[in-house]
Design brief:
Shape: elongated
Main location: membrane
Order of helices and strands: HHHHHHEEH
CATH topology: Bromodomain-like
Subcellular location: Cell membrane
Keywords: Cell membrane, Membrane, Transmembrane, Transmembrane helix
Membrane topology: Multi-pass membrane protein
CATH superfamily: DsbB-like
Protein name: Disulfide bond formation protein B
CATH architecture: Up-down Bundle
Length: 162
């Protein structure tokens, strides 16, 4: 698989993950917590980095590798966020004043784009399962897969066809 294809598949997976989260929220009334919406932001950042890497790689092929490295860092950050949500935040009644809450509020995204980044539940209330597995674990698994794919993209030599 070429570097471009890896980056493109990663971006599509990220957008699909956010789409599933939005359907869960708006169709099935599963309200997100601060850690949920922070992970949405990380997924969208990975998608943007990947697609920018594909575009910029046409001019400077080395930028594809850089995009892979940056996406791997974001993926690792997403795994940490998902792990924290699952193991710490979901055990507490409130996400208030945690890093995710402070970051999302300070960014203005929760108020500016509430249909995507609005915080509507506590961490304890946001513990939701899909096919018997908590959303946070699905997110962690997807972040792990994306990190591996990103490292594969970063490790590939920058050639004309990659």
């Amino acid at each position: 698989m070429t570097t471009n294809r890896i980056l493109h598949v990663m971006a599509v997976l990220c957008v699909a993950a956010v789409a599933v989260a939005l359907v869960s929220q708006h169709v099935f009334d599963m309200r997100p917590c601060a850690w949920c919406v922070l992970q949405r932001l990380v997924f969208l950042a990975i998608a943007a980095v990947c697609w920018l890497g594909v575009l910029a790689g046409r001019v400077a092929p080395g930028l594809r590798r850089f995009a892979g490295l940056l996406a791997a860092l974001l993926g690792a950050g997403g795994m940490v966020a998902a792990w924290y949500q699952y193991s710490v935040a979901a055990q507490r009644f409130s996400c208030d004043m945690t890093f995710a809450d402070r970051f999302m509020v300070a960014s203005g995204l929760d108020a500016g784009v509430p249909w995507l980044f609005g915080i509507f539940a506590s961490c304890l209330d946001a513990r939701v399962e899909l096919l018997g597995v908590e959303y946070a674990l699905w997110g962690m698994g997807l972040f792990a897969l994306l990190t591996v794919m990103a490292l594969m993209a970063a490790a590939r030599r920058s050639g004309r066809r990659r």
